[in-house]
Design a protein that fits this description.
45% helix; 8 helices; Spore Coat Polysaccharide Biosynthesis Protein SpsA, Chain A; 245 residues; single chain
Amino acid sequence: MKLSVIVPVYNSAAFISETFQELVDYLEKLGEEYELFFVDDGSRDNTGSILEELAVRHPQVFLIRNGTNRGKGYSVRAGMKRAQGNFSVFTDADLAYPPTEIGKIVQTLREGADLAIATRVAPASRFIMSPEFFGYIYTRHLGSRLFNWLVRKVLGLSIYDTQAGLKGFNQKAKEIIFNRQTLEGFTFDVELIYIAKKFGMAVREVPVVFRYFSEPTTVSFLMQSLASIKDLFSIRAKNRKRIYQ
């Protein structure tokens, strides 16, 4: 079995070396063939040059550079288009989901899921964070509950955590989904699940450990939320136009 791992990155110079080493160490311990793609989404710092230097020492690691900042959805799709593994997984650059959680996703795919998605709201999921973030996490959790309620109402998806940044696909699902994906921003996760459900794929939610390191600015969070709500109606409109056929 060959495993492909895709990591979209943007302005991550402060921690990308640690991320690189953690992922390589974990994938080497698995003892299976793998390929690791970092997709630099037009970083304005030296993220790309750091990754370029590190990748030279590891033939299984590849760097993809977007000419400009295109968005997380675009970056994940760029990596998936290059991926050759039996299973393909994408995860966040800050490793909010420890590398060991990739193994849970892969195991779920082995058990027959076409699409395996991390969920932070399952009873068995666990958060690791500093107490200073408790208040913000509570607010963010309420916002997430509201957004996923809208997802169910607008698109009819019965998924309770669409936005978790750790998801895995078998080969067939990867080809079908990413050949039809259109969204380039953060709401692309919803579109992936919507396409999977439209094609009758087996979608499984996987409880995970989630490490919380920092909180985004209020402005970016609000702007992202408004854009995501707009995208939900865009997905519904595209389906009516048969774009996902």
